[in-house]
Design brief:
Distance between the termini: 26 Å
Strand order of the largest sheet: 1-2
Order of helices and strands: HHHHHHHHEEHHHHHHH
CATH topology of the largest domain: Growth Hormone, Chain: A
Structural class: mainly alpha
Number of domains: 3
Shape: globular
C-alpha cells in the first residue's frame, strides 16, 4: 500500500495535493462560518439558517455547471474566475453581516457565494485521474489516487469546521470567513494556474495531433477496404477505416469498416481509450483523432453528431448521483442527531468533537482502501459498503450515553469513506471522459444538497421527537443506498487509458 501511494505522489508531485487541499478548505469553512457569523450579528438562528441554506443551495445548483464549464473550456480559466469571484463574494457576505443587512440581502449574497465555489475537490480528482492514467496506471492505481483524494476531502471537512471554531473563539466568526476568502484568492489561484490543469484540458483545446492519436494516411496511399476510405494508424488496436467525410466511433477491437455500427457512447480507440479524452484534433470528436484535410472535412459532422453522442450518460451514472445525495443525507442526519443528543446529555460542546472523531476514522479507513485486493471489483465494494452503512448506522437509534455515542459514530465512520471512494471510482469508469469533471461536481453537489435537506428535516424531527428520530433519517438513507447498489446493474468498460 505504501508503494502505491509513493508511486501516486511521484506522479502528482508535492505541489498539486498541497494547493488542492488548501483550496478546498474554504468549502468546508464557509457553511459553518456563515451560520455562526449571521447568528452572531443578527441574533436570529432563523436568519442564520436561511443564509446558510442559500449558500448550500447555490453550491448544489451551480456546482455541476462549473464542472461542465471546466470540461468544455478547460479548468484553468474556470477555476481562476470562480476562485476570485468566490473570494470577493465571501468578503461581501462578511461585510453585509457586520452591517446587519436585511435577510434578503444575506440570502442573495449567500446564494452567490455558494454558486461561485470553484469546485476544487471534484476538479482535483479529475486532474489526478488524468495524470495517473497518462502515466500508465491501471484501475488499482486509479483507485489509489481516488482514495488519496477522498482522504483529503475528509480531512478538509474535519479541519475546516475546527478552524472556524478556533477563529470564532479567539476572535470573531468574521475572521474565519475572511481566512476562507484569503485561501480562495491564493490557493484557488495557485490550483488554477498549476501546470496539471493541462492534464484535464477540454477536448476542443487540445492540440490537433499527439503521439497517441495516430496519423492519417497520405493522400497517395492505396485505399484499404471500401473506396474513398483512409487508414488511421492507431497504437494497440490495428487499422481503422473511416469514410472521408464521416466521423465514427470505433470499438476496442481490431479494425472496423466505414459502415460499421458505432461503439457505446463515449468509447474511443485503443486499449479502452475514451472518446474526448485523447489529444485529438477534431473538437469534441468521439472517435479517433484526425488531422490534416480529413479533420476539416469531418469537423462539421463530428460537431453535430459526436458531441451529442459524447453527452449521453447511462442510468447507472444517475443512480450514483442519487446514492451520493443519500450519503449527504446521512451526514446531515448525523449532525442533527449528534447535536440533539449531546444537548440532552448536558454536553453540547462535545458535538463538534464527536463529529470530528467520525471524520478522522473515515479518513484513516479511506487511506487503507488502496490495500483492497484488485480482484474485488468496485461494484462489489459498492454493495458491501452500503450494507455496512445500514448495519453500522442502526445502533445510533438506541444510543443514550456520550461514551456509547463516540463508539458508535467512530465505527460508523469506517463505512463512510469506502462508500464515497467507491462511488467516485464507479463514476470515473462509467461516464465519458469529456464529462468527468461535471460528473465529479455533481457528486459533490449531491453531498452538499442532501446534507442541507436532511439537516433541515432531521433537525425538526429532533426538536419534536428527540435524537433517535434524527438518526432514523440517516438509517433510512442508508437503506436506500443499499437498495440502489443491489438494484442497479453497472457494466464497467475495460481499463481507461486517457491520452
Amino acid at each position: 500500500m505504501l508503494r502505491l501511494y509513493r508511486d501516486t505522489l511521484s506522479v502528482l508531485g508535492p505541489a498539486l495535493p498541497a494547493v488542492s487541499f488548501l483550496g478546498r478548505l474554504p468549502t468546508a469553512m464557509c457553511q459553518l462560518g456563515s451560520l455562526l457569523l449571521v447568528a452572531e450579528t443578527s441574533g436570529s438562528l432563523t436568519t442564520a439558517g436561511l443564509a446558510g441554506g442559500a449558500l448550500a443551495a447555490g453550491q448544489t445548483v451551480a456546482g455541476p455547471v462549473v464542472g461542465r464549464l471546466a470540461d468544455r473550456r478547460g479548468q484553468r480559466g474556470v477555476v481562476l474566475t470562480a476562485s476570485l469571484a468566490n473570494a470577493v463574494l465571501v468578503t461581501a457576505l462578511v461585510a453585509a453581516a457586520l452591517a446587519q443587512a436585511a435577510t434578503g440581502w444575506l440570502m442573495l449574497l449567500g446564494a452567490l457565494a455558494g454558486a461561485s465555489v470553484p469546485q476544487v475537490g471534484p476538479l482535483a480528482r479529475t486532474r489526478s485521474v488524468a495524470l495517473v492514467r497518462r502515466g500508465g496506471a491501471d484501475d488499482r492505481g486509479v483507485a489509489t489516487v481516488l482514495s488519496f483524494e477522498g482522504t483529503l476531502d475528509e480531512v478538509s471537512f474535519v479541519l475546516g469546521p475546527a478552524l472556524v471554531g478556533v477563529a470564532a473563539a479567539l476572535a470573531h466568526p468574521a475572521a474565519a470567513l475572511l481566512l476562507a476568502a484569503a485561501l480562495l484568492a491564493t490557493c484557488g489561484t495557485a490550483f488554477a494556474l498549476h501546470p496539471s490543469a493541462r492534464a484535464a484540458a477540454a477536448p476542443e483545446r487540445r492540440s490537433a495531433r499527439s503521439p497517441e492519436s495516430g496519423s492519417v494516411a497520405a493522400p497517395g496511399r492505396p485505399p484499404v477496404g471500401a473506396p474513398g476510405s483512409r487508414t488511421l494508424e492507431v497504437p494497440e488496436s490495428g487499422a481503422v477505416e473511416v469514410q472521408e467525410a464521416r466521423a465514427v466511433e470505433v470499438p476496442e477491437s481490431g479494425s472496423v469498416g466505414a459502415g460499421a455500427a458505432t461503439a457505446p457512447a463515449g468509447r474511443g480507440v485503443g486499449a479502452g481509450r475514451e472518446a474526448g479524452a485523447g489529444a485529438g484534433g477534431v473538437p469534441g470528436a468521439d472517435g479517433p483523432a484526425l488531422d490534416g484535410p480529413a479533420a476539416g472535412r469531418a469537423a462539421s459532422r463530428t460537431t453535430r453528431t459526436g458531441v451529442a453522442r459524447r453527452g449521453r450518460l447511462s442510468g447507472a451514472a444517475y443512480a450514483l448521483r442519487v446514492t451520493m445525495a443519500l450519503q449527504g443525507a446521512m451526514f446531515g442526519a448525523s449532525q442533527a442527531g449528534i447535536t440533539a443528543l449531546t444537548e440532552k446529555l448536558g454536553a453540547p460542546e462535545q458535538a463538534g468533537l464527536v463529529y470530528a472523531a467520525m471524520g478522522v476514522m473515515s479518513a484513516a479507513v479511506g487511506l487503507s482502501m488502496a490495500a483492497v485486493p484488485a480482484g474485488i471489483g468496485p461494484a462489489v465494494r459498492w454493495r458491501v459498503s452500503t450494507a455496512a452503512l445500514v448495519v453500522l448506522s442502526v445502533p445510533l437509534v438506541v444510543v443514550d450515553s456520550l461514551g456509547a455515542l463516540y463508539a458508535v459514530v467512530i465505527v460508523l465512520g469506517a463505512a463512510f469513506a469506502p462508500h464515497l471512494i467507491t462511488v467516485f471510482a464507479l463514476t470515473e469508469r462509467t461516464v465519458p471522459a469529456a464529462r468527468l469533471a461535471e460528473s465529479m461536481a455533481f457528486l459533490t453537489s449531491g453531498i452538499v444538497g442532501g446534507q442541507a435537506l436532511a439537516l433541515a428535516v432531521s433537525g425538526g424531527l429532533a426538536d419534536g421527537h428527540g435524537a433517535p428520530a434524527a438518526f432514523a433519517v440517516g438509517v433510512a438513507a442508508a437503506v436506500l443506498c443499499a437498495v440502489l447498489s443491489w438494484a442497479v446493474r453497472i457494466r464497467l468498460p475495460s481499463a481507461r487509458a486517457d491520452a
